[in-house]
Design brief:
The complex is a heterodimer of chains A (321) and B (313).
Chain A lengths: L1 H27 L14 H26 L7 H18 L4 H26 L3 H19 L5 E2 L5 H10 L2 H21 L1 H11 L1 H6 L4 H27 L1 E2 L7 H11 L11 H20 L4 H24 L1
Antiparallel strand pairs in A: 1-2
Helix pairs in contact in A: 1-12, 2-7, 2-8, 2-10, 2-11, 2-12, 3-4, 3-5, 3-10, 4-5, 4-10, 6-10, 7-8, 8-10, 11-12
Chain B lengths: L3 H19 L12 E7 L5 H15 L4 E7 L4 H13 L4 E4 L8 H9 L4 E4 L10 E5 L1 H20 L4 E7 L5 H14 L5 E8 L4 H14 L5 E4 L2 H13 L7 E6 L5 H6 L5 E4 L4 H13 L8 E4 L3 E3 L2
Helix pairs in contact in B: 3-4, 5-6, 7-8
The chains are: A mainly alpha (321), B alpha/beta (313).
């Protein structure tokens, strides 16, 4: 009961930050010089913002579960790149249909995730090390499968063009994310699996003594994250009309930043999907308004750094009480 | 309530950061009489691109009636697409795009055109002709110039067109590298006396060219000329050869010829020659200003700019 109340209060606070950032963005937005209204609040801009945020936010759903178990997955950016390459290869080089190409790319992502999960569960090496290794290795695999080349989709036949046109549409990308967020939230809240995920990160020793199926839970969370990274790769390929083996470089850091901003503790056990969605929106709004104001890229990086540190400091205080 | 303080502190600091960095205090909008020119650069963090940005700033700076803004795509196609979406919202009077990737940027440039924004495609082409005009320079022609220069240089050195050549290539799969290779070898292929004794890719990077040149030197007792697809790689090759005491026997050829890079190396006697890869900026500004001033002006679909050799006086 107390935990439930606390979680609600955390969420309300996160929503307050979101509201504040949103209002600040609206106030600071450059004006449309024809109508005088803020560009930030234009429907077109808000949907642009949501779509840009989708791939990272989507992977963050899975990363939330991984972090809740006390783990981490550094390989998601490379997995995203690999899936983008697989989807593009299937469509452009092997001339598969859209459905087969998409399913294969997502499956490849899932397999990478399962491999991570299996190594973490069986070898008992820290997930940081396992997924650091796969981050490096999977990037190499992605580059070697496409021979270091970018695979263009716009001129690669009907199936490829249909795929690009459908999968890059705003309602599709945003809707897909919303659906998945609800699904993962339900999984975490309403199922035994969800309780195991939290229990594992909250107190690993107790989880062992309670006889929780730890290995299966680990396989599942890394596998799910791999699937989501695969899907994000497919969306990126559609959005950029290209399978680029360098897609998603450093995306793992953006993803982790979103999860942390959303109030999920890196030590595991505490946090949830609603927070992650809010975190993604905060990061998305920040990126959008800084872009609209054309703030220098290097200053943006420094600002990001400051905000992440603040979020984590706040976290620790919350956890300590 | 003990935690209320850090939270409010956080809010305060975040608000300040945002306010400072977004410059709430500055007037945000373009003055009504000013016209807006947006340049979407694919990656500010490259010397060639930094030189472009600087030149644009100089030339557009002479037009107080224009507000000129550069967006930095940070070598990320998705980021550049999103920035162009932001640009479209602001309905600029002119949009200039140096696309990061030819497939990725094609669509969004089409949307800028559909929104009625004159759009200049700079230096790299895209898969669909979604631009008002395309301004670029010709890497094959640059390759031919370099090839002919090497033929003349070897003829002068060895009495006839023969000698051992090392080629250090740019990133494989990039059109610029393929074209700089093709142009040079269209010329070199006519002279069977010129042998390619070593060929390696260094992905445009000086740091990668150095170990490749070490390998080339170890494998070949005699090298007459090194042809690198850009100046940093040529310079890296030179540094390694100098360390091994072999730089005096070898002529180093680069491409790009930036004033504070390749052109300087030539002036210092490090490179035998470099071939200017035009910034395309002067032409873009010339055409851009015409588009802004004369609504009836119809530019050519493409402008191809000439290179020139930079050699010792």
């Amino acid at each position: 009961m107390k935990e439930c109340l606390r979680r609600h209060r955390d969420l309300v606070q996160s929503l307050a930050v979101l509201g504040l950032i949103f209002s600040l963005a609206a106030v600071c937005s450059p004006r449309d010089w024809r109508t005088g209204g803020p560009l930030f609040l234009q429907a077109d801009n808000l949907t642009n913002l949501l779509r840009v945020t989708t791939p990272v936010a989507m992977v963050a759903l899975g990363m939330t579960l991984v972090i809740l178990t006390g783990g981490i997955d550094l390989s998601v950016g490379s997995t995203l790149g690999l899936a983008a390459v697989v989807a593009a290869l299937a469509l452009a080089k092997w001339r598969w249909g859209g459905a087969a190409a998409i399913a294969t790319a997502i499956t490849v992502g899932g397999l990478v995730g399962l491999l991570n999960g299996a190594l973490v569960a069986l070898l008992r090496v820290p997930p940081f090390i396992i997924t650091l290794a796969s981050m490096i290795g999977i990037r190499g695999l992605a580059r070697s499968w496409c021979n270091n080349e970018n695979i263009g989709l716009r001129t690669a036949g009907d199936a490829a063009v249909r795929f690009v046109d459908t999968w890059s549409q705003k309602p599709f990308m945003i809707g897909l994310f919303a659906g998945l967020a609800l699904l993962v939230a339900a999984l975490l809240r309403g199922t035994v699996f969800g309780r195991y995920v939290r229990a594992l990160g909250d107190n690993p020793t107790a989880a062992v003594y309670a006889g929780l199926p730890i290995k299966r839970v680990q396989l599942a969370v890394y596998g799910l994250t791999g699937l989501l990274a695969g899907l994000a790769g497919v969306l990126t390929a559609a959005r950029t009309n290209t399978g680029n083996p360098n897609d998603g470089i450093a995306a793992e850091l953006d993803v982790i930043a979103v999860v942390v901003m959303g109030g999920t503790a890196l030590t595991g056990g505490r946090g949830g999907i609603a927070g992650t969605v809010i975190g993604a929106l905060i990061v998305g709004i920040l990126a959008n308004i800084l872009g609209l104001r054309n703030v220098d890229a290097n200053s943006q990086l420094m600002l990001k750094a400051g905000i992440i540190v603040l979020a984590v400091v706040l976290q620790q205080r919350r956890a300590a009480r | 309530m003990k935690t209320a303080m850090p939270r409010s502190l956080f809010l305060l600091v975040a608000a300040c950061l945002l306010a400072v960095l977004t410059g709430c205090d500055k007037p945000a909008a373009t003055a009504a009489h000013q016209r807006l020119v947006i340049f979407s650069q694919c990656n500010n963090a490259e010397p060639y691109r930094a030189a472009q940005n600087q030149r644009f700033g100089e030339l557009f700076g002479r037009h107080p009636e224009l507000k000129f803004v550069i967006y930095d795509g940070q070598a990320d196609a998705a980021k550049q697409i999103s920035q162009i979406e932001n640009a479209i919202l602001q309905k600029p009077d002119l949009l200039i795009v140096a696309p990061f990737e030819r497939n990725a940027l094609s669509d969004v440039m089409g949307r800028a055109m559909a929104a009625g924004i004159p759009t200049i495609c700079l230096e790299r082409d895209i898969v669909q002709p979604n631009f008002t005009t395309f301004i670029s320079s010709d890497n094959v022609a640059i390759g031919r110039l370099a090839g002919q220069f090497m033929v003349d240089l070897l003829t002068k050195k060895n009495g006839e067109a023969r000698g051992n050549l090392v080629e250090i290539t740019g990133m494989s799969g990039v059109q610029g590298a393929a074209d700089r290779h093709r142009g040079a070898f269209e010329v070199l292929a006519k002279y069977p006396g010129i042998k390619v004794v070593h060929q390696a890719t260094a992905n445009w990077m000086q740091a990668e060219a150095m170990p490749r040149m070490e390998e080339a030197l170890a494998a070949n007792p005699r090298i007459d000329v090194v042809y690198a697809h850009n100046d940093p790689m040529a310079y890296g090759a030179y540094l390694v050869a100098k360390e091994k005491g072999r730089a005096k026997d070898i002529a180093f050829i680069g491409v790009d010829g930036l004033a504070n890079e390749g052109a300087k190396y030539v002036a210092e006697g490090i490179l035998a020659a470099t071939f200017e890869y035009p910034l395309c900026v002067d032409k873009a500004v010339e055409i851009g200003i015409k588009l802004l001033e004369d609504k009836t002006f119809k530019p050519q679909p493409q402008y191809l700019l000439e290179s020139r050799a930079i050699t010792h006086p």
